Amino acid sequence: MNKLFTYVMAVFASLLPSLAAAQEAVGVDERINQIFADYTGWYVSFIFAPLPGTNFSWIALWLVVGAVVFTVYFGAIQLKGFWHSIQLVRGDYSDPDDAGEVSHFQALATALSGTVGLGNIAGVAVAVSIGGPGATFWMVVAGLFGMATKFTECTLGVKYRNEFPDGHVSGGPMYYIVKGFSERGLPLGGFMAVLFSIFTILGALGGGNMFQANQAHAQLAGVLGDYPGWITGVILAGVTFAVIAGGLKSIARVTEKIVPFMGVFYVLVSILILIINWDMIGWAFGQIFMGAFTGLGVVGGFTGALIQGFRRAAFSNEAGIGSAAIAHSAVRTKEPVTEGYVALLEPFIDTVVICTMTALVIVISGVLNQDPATGLYIWNEEAGRIATEGDVSGVALTSAAYARAFSWFPILLMIAVVLFAFSTMISWSYYGLKAWTYLFGEGPAKELTFKVIFCVFIVIGAAASLGPVIDFSDAMLFSMAIVNIIALYFLMPIVKRELNSYVARLRSGEIVKHK
Amino acid sequence: MSKSTIVVGLDGSEAGARALAFAQAQAKQIGDCSITVCFVIEWSPFTFQTKEENEQRHMRREQELQRAHDVVLDPAVADAKASGIEVEGIVRHGDVADILEGVAKKRGAIQIVVGRVGERGLKRLFGGVTGRLVAGSSVPVTIIP
Questions:
Q1: What angle do CA B66, B69, B73 make, to 5 degrees?
Q2: Distance from CA of B144 to the nearest CA of A (A)
Q3: By CB count within 10 A, which of A98, A163, A494, B134 is most buried?
Q4: Helix crossing, A356-365 with A249-276: angle to 10°?
């Protein structure tokens, strides 16, 4: 503990002066931005490049096509297996002799705490304000298909994880790529696994860290008044370091308990708002369905809604990125397929339920300005989105929409945003660490090195407005999806074999219900 | 062959030890009677855990089982055996009341003996472990103060 403390102090002592200097000299920000833009700009443009003749980025299509392929290949597993998934989470099939191991419910809750977050609050607001209410429809469609992707990757994650002599486990795409490829006699498994790990580390430092810290600070500054970002950064980094470096497990536990509670509370408040405005629900669904196919006057019309919806779903539920496979592989089950079943509930809860709630409340609240004469949305040319009340977007728009029903909501939302950001950071520190140990091996010193790097990036993320750096890290998240989904295409026959065997034994009664 | 079984809930406390002593006396009186000593580690599949906790869960579970045997169960079983009674010791994860009831049912036990747990405040109001055991048990329950 003492050693840890000196470590923390040393890290902060070395950081503080340089950060203060960075705040004073805006030039440092700009220089870092410039360097990043010069060297990585081409890669970011490549990842987010639109398909020729459209403004639909090919990477969003990549994820959706993957999801559709897995849906067809596994015979709409998300529909056929939905009830079985719920039975598994309830523990109906859990062997009492395995009590004390990680349960399906715990695995699901842990994985969800990594995905439910800013995407559900800020991202949806962005999608609806750019793509119109119709974006919600396509978001739900993409979420439903994404369930099959999660099923595939999480089954593989459990099947090919590493179990170490002391009993702890490590798993994820890097492990199933190597082992699965060699099992099928395919080349390049090792190369792809290394590539995936590098993308994961960079993605963890960016989208899973700097972006979260940045947004958390923006939200705090928005409610509490402006103050320097490095203060938020140092506090967040300190708490995060205390948690991930092992000292303060209790904070992690508290977060793990509060975050699901916040999520449930968020949904309940949304439902309450919908009940209060029950007479408008039909109208809102009408807006969503009509908007999905006509655009309702939103520039870009039908395709605009489609693009925004698909993008939002991909960002929010992480299906195909490979992160969930890392989280789920900790479960000790005799049947890897059962973990796939459980994981397919994630995009459903994250996208189909929570994102849709946010979207419905935004539409019903009327914060999106409509032309009373035509019923079409008024386009704000300058901002590139629908004109909104108070001229805001992102978290602020969600906040405004909920504030129409409950004036205290923005304060609660601020707490929720900070907690969600924090739990996402903790989750991604774990994903990054797993990729790190895959590359460099397991060991306390190696792991501590990554944890220190991770916390330094929190401060940078909160303190600086590093647009190009964050763009680059977003590009890394999607690069993970390129490697991962290619691997999933090659490995899906293995999952199919597992699934067929499992379903056959379920039918024959060999797999018994314990409740 | 033993005709009857008494299930004893053990938690390492003095009341638990008294419960076992009581069960031993009962078993001797009955004559053809065995004792199943059950140590329950409080655990629920519906809690929220961190990723590291999940990763190390299997390891921790093994340690918990080992500790339960070493510290509480094995000495108690050895003691009881020394007095000439057929004794079996088991460790389970889960809800104490549910597990004891389940074990008793499975073994066709004639009664469950537990030590009273000193509970205060809300727990007393809503019924603690012993309260729920009494409320839900299918066999007679003896509570040793």
A1: 165
A2: 28
A3: A494
A4: 40
All domains of chain A, ordered by start, with CATH? 2-508 (1.20.1740)
Distance of CA A155 to the CA centre of its chain: 19
Nearest to B51 among A99, A105, A110 (CB): A110
Residue A189 backbone dihedrals phi, psi, to 5 degrees: -60, -45
What letter represents residue A40's amino acid?
A: T
Going residue by residue through chain A, which has 515 residues, state the pLDDT in tens, using 9 for 90 and above: 445 445 544 554 555 555 555 455 455 667 767 777 777 788 888 888 887 777 677 888 898 899 999 999 999 999 999 999 999 999 888 888 888 888 999 889 888 888 887 778 888 888 888 888 888 999 999 999 999 999 999 999 999 998 888 878 889 999 999 999 999 988 898 999 999 999 999 999 888 888 888 888 888 887 788 888 888 889 999 888 888 886 566 677 777 778 888 888 888 999 999 999 989 888 888 888 888 887 665 655 677 778 788 878 877 888 899 999 998 988 878 899 999 999 999 999 999 999 999 999 999 988 888 777 777 787 777 777 787 777 777 788 888 889 888 888 888 888 888 888 888 888 899 999 999 999 998 888 998 999 999 999 898 888 876 677 777 777 888 899 999 999 999 999 999 999 999 999 999 988 888 87
Residue B48 touches partner A, C-beta closer than 8 Å: yes
pTM of the model: 0.87
Residue A208 near residue A424, CB atoms below 8 Å: yes
CATH number of this structure's domain B4-144? 3.40.50.620
Tokens of B34: 């065995």
* Domains of chain B by residue range: 4-144
Record: contact A109-B48, CB cut-off 8 A: yes
- Which residues have a Cβ under 8 Å from the Cβ of A47 and sit 6 or more positions away? A57, A59, A475, A478, A479
What does the alpha-carbon distance between residue A510 and residue B93 come to, in Å, rounded to a whole number?
A: 25
Which tokens go with B60? 């921790």
- Interacting residues of B17 by C-beta distance below 8 A, sequence separation 6+: B10, B76, B115
Name A380's Cβ contacts closer than 8 Å, sequence gap at least 6: A386, A387, A388, A391
Taking the C-alpha atoms of residue B65 and residue B32, their distance in angstroms, rounded to an integer, is 30
Helix locations, A25-81, DSSP H: 26-47, 58-73, 77-80
In DSSP notation, A171-191 reads -SHHHHHHHHHHHTT-S-HHH
- Print burial letters for A297-313: b (CB count within 10 Å at least 16), e (below 16): bbebbbebbbbbbbbbb
Q: Which of B39, B46, B52, B93 to mutate to test the interface with A (most CBs of A within 10 A)?
A: B52
Candidates A97, A113, A168: best to mutate against B (most CBs of B within 10 A) is A168
